[in-house]
Structure formats: C-alpha cells, structure tokens
Inverse folding.
C-alpha cells in the first residue's frame, strides 16, 4: 500500500474527549463506569467490579473536554496547525446504544458524519479507530463483554455499519486500540472484570482471541465493501530491554517481547505463535479456537501495523532491590540510563527507532505511529501563554528518531499522529492534569474549568515544523 503524503497529524479517543455521554441517544460504555481516584486502577485491571465503586464518585469521561459540542472549533485549530491527518475513535454506544439493537442510532452516525466532513473540508485525512477502549455497557450486561463469542457478531455489525456509511470518506481504519492492553487492564481494554473463581489468563486470552477473530472478520468485510481502504492492527509498543547481559535477564526480556508481539503474530502473520499454544496446553488453558477461526485469521491479516510508543521497557529476572515503579501498565523495571517523565515513564527516543526495526523485521508491513507524546503538568501563565518547551523537546527528539529510521533503515512509515491533538482525560489516571495536547483545555482533575481552548508553545512549534517539513 502506498500513500502520496506522509500523514502528520494528531490523535484522540472518543471516551477521552467527547463527553455528552447521554446525549444524541448514546448508551453507556465501559469507560463511563471508570471513576477518577483511588478505585480507578482496581476497576481498570478487572480486579474490582465497577458496581462496587462507592456512590458519589466522579467519572471524567461523562463530560471529558466536550468535543461533542466543540468539534468544529477544535478541528479548525487542528487545521490551522497544518495537520494532514486526525486519528479519532467512534463511540460504539453512540452507534448502537446497547450494542444489541438491529438498527443503528442515526443521530450517532450523523455526528461522526459531520466530524468527518469537517475534517475533509480542511483536507485532513480521517484515521478511524473502531474501538478505542470502548464496549457498550449493554454488551457487558448481556454477554460479560469479550468473554463471549457473541461479541464477534456484535462487532461485525457495528464495523459494517461504519464501513457502509463512511465508505469513500474514510480510507484508514484501526480495529482495536492497543489490543495488548487487555493483558494489563482488561476492563479498560475490553470491558471485562475477572471473578474470583475464574482463571485470569484463560479469560484474558479467550477474550483476546475473540477480539482478533472480530478484527479479522472486520478486515474481510472492509475488503468486500471498500476494497481501496486500509485496515490496521494497533499495538502498545516498546521493546523490553534486558536489564543486564545476564542470560536470565535476556530471557526475561525475550518472553516479555514475545507476549507483546503475540497479538501482531496473529493479526499480521495470521497464526498463533508456538510458544503460546504450548503454554496454553501446558497450563491447562483452553482457548476456543475453531478451524473456521484459523482460516479466517490466516486469510485476513492486516494491511498495516499501527502502534503507540511512549517508552521502552526493561526486564529483569530477579527484581529484588530494583525500582519497579515504572508508572506504566507495561511493567518491567526502571532503566537507570534513561530520563523519566513526571509520571515516571521512561523517555527514550532511540527506543522508537529500535521498536520500529523490531516490528518491521518481524512483519514487513507498513508501520503507522498513531500515538507518541509527553504527559506533563503545564502552567497557564497570566498572559495565556503555556511554555511547554519540555513537550517540544520530546516531540523533536522522537520525530528525529522517526526520520532517521525512515532514511537510514529504510522502514516505511505511513504517518505520525501525535498524542494528543488537544488536552484530554488521561486514560490511566483519569486526570486532566496529565496533559499531552498542543492545545490547552481549561479544566482540572475535579472537572472544574471553563473548557476554554488555549494554544501552547508546542502548537506554534508544530505548526512551523509542519510548514517546513519535507516529508
Ligand atoms: C495509550 C492510549 O495507552 O496511551 C491512550 O491509547 C492514552 O488512550 C495514552 O491516553 C496515554 O496514556 P495516559 O494513561 O497517560 O493517558
């Protein structure tokens, strides 16, 4: 697949920007049930049922940054930066409020149609994630979400509705955001909580299997309906480095990398890796893989591989006495050679070149960096300035790494949509104070603020960069 322009742009996700959680006929989704504060992590990890959260909790997705009402103004700002692409996700429960309906919600479709038309008006390429940490609550109630194979048909119906409605307008689709997040945060990633009598690995790997089958089915359908569109997998990427050259640490890193690439092995090669099949068998984990699934997976692999990259990871066999507080769901230990963000995430631009090489070496499919950026606390000065030179430095270093990888290593990259186009609710913490945007949104962790949009220094920097970029 070829593109005639490198897709420089920005990214967001429905649950982190839209708000209006009960408007336009929308139903509730998993992230609407994820509170801010002390219970968030346990619910996200599937350890605590969302229904056990005490009354009175604050749910940041309900209003988010109100993009549902401000999208025209927000898209105008993105166009003014010079963005050529905007990656966003569709809220499943805006289209099928409970997920179970046989007919879609026209008002929801019309909303996204307007968003897409607004983008196309400015020549901004829409990149659509079909499910970005997003499951209608109705499907959680009916089937316990991705624990059930029923979800495959529900997803197929939803995806087909989008393909039919937006054909000719949307050329790039992504089936599931950070599909491997299900390993760490199954409620966030897939709307599932683990019960006491359940085998965690069995539940998670079965749910992942159904998602990958659904992804392959959507790929098949897209090719039937819109043969010239492209569809990709999406991985939360970052190589695991061995902490030392001891074979134990090297092996630990190798296992962690295999677990991460497991998803791409299935979605891009169309086959389960042997280590995984062996592991399932040896540990008595039954995965509901049928012959029909195997055929579907093999015949419908993705066109491109999209990925997020924030940090590399580091593995150590024996973690006694070592700092394991990496601040990130991907785990591992702290890498003493790297700087860290205010949230403890490693900052490693060279790691981006490394992971692009790792992915390319395994799959030889075009890559698409659909998330990368710095979560930081910004200070709004009295004159409405935000001097986020740290974010500019981060983006510059990572863009340099991309360019080197493309030029020196010859690896094809379709584009880069930075995270995030505009400040939004953080996925892990649910806070607003962990800001990624080029555009500041006046709102705090407790939901207070005017929601006013203010351009940061990084906005002006990115605009100049895009105007002068020759790729
Ligand atoms: C990715 C997600 O995990 O990283 C985004 O796809 C998320 O939804 C982003 O916001 C940054 O993570 P966080 O937890 O800092 O918001």
């Amino acid at each position: 697949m070829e593109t005639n322009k490198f897709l420089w742009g920005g990214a967001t996700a429905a649950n982190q920007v839209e708000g209006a959680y009960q408007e336009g006929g929308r139903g509730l989704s998993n992230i609407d049930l994820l509170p801010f504060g002390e219970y968030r992590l346990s619910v996200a990890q599937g350890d605590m049922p969302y229904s056990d959260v005490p009354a009175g909790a604050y749910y940041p997705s309900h209003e988010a940054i109100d993009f549902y009402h401000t999208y025209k103004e927000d898209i105008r700002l993105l166009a003014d930066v010079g963005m050529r692409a905007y990656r966003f996700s569709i809220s499943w429960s805006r289209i099928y409020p409970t997920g179970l309906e046989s007919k879609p919600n026209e008002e929801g479709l019309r909303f996204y149609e307007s968003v897409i038309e607004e983008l196309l008006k400015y020549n901004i390429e829409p990149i659509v994630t079909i499910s970005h940490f997003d499951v209608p609550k109705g499907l959680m109630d009916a089937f316990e979400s991705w624990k059930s194979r029923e979800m495959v048909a529900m997803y197929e119906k939803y995806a087909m509705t989008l393909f039919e409605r937006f054909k000719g307008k949307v050329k790039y689709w992504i089936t599931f955001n950070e599909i491997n997040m299900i390993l760490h945060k199954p409620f966030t990633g897939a709307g599932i909580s683990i019960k006491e009598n359940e085998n965690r690995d069995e539940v998670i790997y079965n749910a992942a299997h159904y998602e990958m089958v659904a992804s392959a089915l959507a790929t098949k359908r897209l090719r039937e309906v819109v043969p010239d569109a492209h569809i990709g997998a999406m991985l939360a990427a970052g190589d695991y480095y061995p902490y030392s050259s001891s074979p134990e640490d090297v092996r630990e890193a190798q296992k962690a990398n295999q677990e991460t690439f497991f998803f791409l092995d299935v979605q891009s090669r169309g086959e389960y890796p042997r280590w995984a099949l062996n592991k399932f068998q040896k540990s008595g984990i039954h995965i509901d893989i049928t012959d029909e699934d195997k055929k579907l997976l093999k015949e419908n692999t993705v066109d491109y591989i999209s990925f997020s990259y924030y940090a590399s990871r580091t593995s150590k066999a024996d973690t006694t006495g070592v700092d394991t507080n990496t601040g990130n769901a991907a785990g591992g230990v702290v890498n003493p050679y790297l700087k860290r963000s205010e949230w403890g995430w490693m900052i490693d631009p060279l790691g981006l070149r490394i992971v692009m090489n790792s992915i390319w070496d395994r799959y030889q499919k075009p890559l698409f960096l659909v998330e990368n950026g710095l979560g930081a606390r910004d200070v709004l000065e009295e004159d409405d300035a935000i001097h986020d030179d740290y974010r500019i430095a981060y983006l510059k270093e990572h863009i340099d790494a991309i360019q080197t990888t493309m030029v020196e290593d010859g690896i094809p990259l379709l584009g880069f949509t930075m995270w995030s186009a505009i400040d939004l609710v953080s996925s892990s913490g649910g806070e607003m104070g962990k800001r990624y945007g080029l555009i500041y949104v006046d709102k705090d962790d407790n939901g207070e603020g005017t929601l006013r949009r203010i351009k940061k220094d990084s906005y002006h920097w990115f605009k100049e960069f895009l105007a002068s970029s020759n790729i």
